[in-house]
Amino acid sequence: MHYQIRRLAPSDAAALHRLRTCPGVVRNTLQQPFQSLASVQQLLDNFPPHIHALVACTPDGELVGCGGLHLAIPPRRRHTALLFLMVRDDWQGKGVGGALMRALLDYADNWLDLKRIELDAVHDNHGAIALYERYGFEHEGVARGFNLREGVYEDAVLMARLRFRPGEHAASTRPAEPATRPAPRQDRPRQLFHLRHSELDDAAGVAALMAHDSVQANTLQLPYPDENAWRQRLSDCKYSLVAEAADGSIVGNAAIWQPGDNPRLAHIAELGIIVHPAQHGQGVGSALLQALLGQVSDYLPYRRLQLKVFSDNAPAIALYEKYGFVREATLRGDGLRHGAYHDCLLMARAVK
């Protein structure tokens, strides 16, 4: 059958509501059961500009599938999009998914010039995984306990399709064996520091910390950090710690945050740590990580703690492995750094 592919519109609310509440769609995506029509209409009336959504309709106009590209917002990941796809239960196996995939990939390749399209699929959604493989998506790893479904935390298969031009994708330098932590530095006395909760007045200190070339290179932040932007970020982040030296300077920062507001991912928190280059190997990162892990374990409801790290950042990888983080996936070409797209590792630790 030939399907009409067009952009999702506010007038599609009733049909999209029917699609999103199909039992099979709820089971195999991150949709919630018992969604209200009003909530779907509100979504469409205020649709985010960084999400490009298409629908598949039968010749008589009936909406039977929806798919889209969720563009990454961080500037160093703007070459990336997260793909999503839903097909109504009674239209499975009739070519709807394939029609949407062809349209979405054409849109991504020829109009958005995306380099990396990624997705996650519930581990037992074999039909969808086979469809993605047929259109060039490759397995990158498995996120353990990622998706809450019917009371069980299910694994998600992580897949991606790459479209880099020659020379754009830097070869992975991920070590085959567990990374080795650097020995404590002996060239200077260990500097005393203490940990405390971050305050808005720490924005200048954190921005100065982020201004170091090596800190920028090993995060997804931009050069020339803005103090006001960091003030807003510290205001938004509920769980942020700083390591303060005896002279009052900020020598480290660590934070955890939720990756989104989807209730089925509410058990997940993401983690980030930065340390002043002069304090590498002095225990700052370990102290920050221990403190955050204790806070999550004892006082917060998260069950899964995850992070990304560039695959060539061996000292950071070793630190995370020391505290129980496991490499789950190699995300190829995930982050832009010095003009090339570099691999990142997804690492995670079960907290409870």
Automatic annotation (TrEMBL):
Q: Cross-referenced InterPro entries, in alphabetical order?
A: Acyl_CoA_acyltransferase (IPR016181), GNAT_dom (IPR000182), N-acetyltransferase (IPR051531)
Q: Which Gene3D superfamilies match?
A: 3.40.630.30
The record's listing under Pfam families reads: Acetyltransf_1
Instruction: Give one GO molecular function term.
Output: acyltransferase activity, transferring groups other than amino-acyl groups
Membrane-spanning regions, if any? none
> Transferase among the record's keywords?
yes
Write out the biased-composition intervals (Low complexity).
Answer: 170-183
Question: Which UniProt keywords are given for this protein, alphabetically ordered?
Answer: Acyltransferase, Transferase
Q: Does the keyword Ribonucleoprotein apply?
A: no
Residues in domain N-acetyltransferase? 3-164, 193-352
Question: Which parts of this chain are annotated as the region Disordered?
Answer: 168-188
Spell out the family assignment given in the record's similarity comment. Belongs to the acetyltransferase family. RimJ subfamily.
What PANTHER family is this protein classified in? Answer: [RIBOSOMAL PROTEIN US5]-ALANINE N-ACETYLTRANSFERASE, GNAT FAMILY, PUTATIVE (AFU_ORTHOLOGUE AFUA_3G00765)-RELATED-RELATED
**Record protein name field:** L-amino acid N-acyltransferase YncA
